[in-house]
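Help needed: design a sequence for this.
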């Protein structure tokens, strides 16, 4: 089980061992399941775009098909998250912390909502933790489903289309192929900084 979880946090292992099916499940889970926040969404999508050009046999689809499938998984994931939040409602904020669930994740996401409104569903796609809890919080506060779907689709297309296309474009360069680990680290740092800043602001506000 531990080895399996390690593979789920390694983008290259996900694609190498699980192929397209596991790739789609991970994207769905990160945006649709409460426990999906630890999954490597950004780097996974970027690397899948690279593999489309460098090792296309691993996924068996072209770039356009890959983007469409990933967008579908991301959209369905957000819908699942929305309805989970809709059904559970405000009591979710009273839930005790556990190894998987931390109340501060919801608080940070709420701070993003207070600042950016529904655009959080678009901006949050590019930010770990936020992209997992944004649709859940949208369900908790019962945002109109049609408006939610608009932001949901736009956010999914922007997130998947951007990262996948960049990965595809740079995937043919030898330097990029040899330094995937470094690129993944840089992606993690870039996407984590805004979340860390929001957490610190929320913590300071509550003191």
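Sure. Designed sequence:
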């Amino acid at each position: 089980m531990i080895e399996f979880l390690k593979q789920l946090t390694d983008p290259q292992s996900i694609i190498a061992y699980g192929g397209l099916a596991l790739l789609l499940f991970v994207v769905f889970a990160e945006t649709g399941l409460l426990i999906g926040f630890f999954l490597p969404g950004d780097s996974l999508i970027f690397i899948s775009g690279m593999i489309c050009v460098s090792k296309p046999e691993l996924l068996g689809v072209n770039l356009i098909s890959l983007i469409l499938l990933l967008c579908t998984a991301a959209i369905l994931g957000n819908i699942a998250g929305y309805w989970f939040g809709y059904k559970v409602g405000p009591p979710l904020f009273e839930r005790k912390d556990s190894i998987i669930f931390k109340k501060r994740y919801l608080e940070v996401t709420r701070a993003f909502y207070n600042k950016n409104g529904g655009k959080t569903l678009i901006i949050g796609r590019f930010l770990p933790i936020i992209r997992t809890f944004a649709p859940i919080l949208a369900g908790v506060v019962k945002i109109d489903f049609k408006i939610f779907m608009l932001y949901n689709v736009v956010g999914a297309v922007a997130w998947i289309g951007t990262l996948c296309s960049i990965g595809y474009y740079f995937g043919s360069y030898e330097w990029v192929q040899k330094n995937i680990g470094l690129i993944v680290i840089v992606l993690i740092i870039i996407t984590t900084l805004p979340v860390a800043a929001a957490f610190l602001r929320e913590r300071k506000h509550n003191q």
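Residues 112 and 164 are 25 Å apart (CA to CA).
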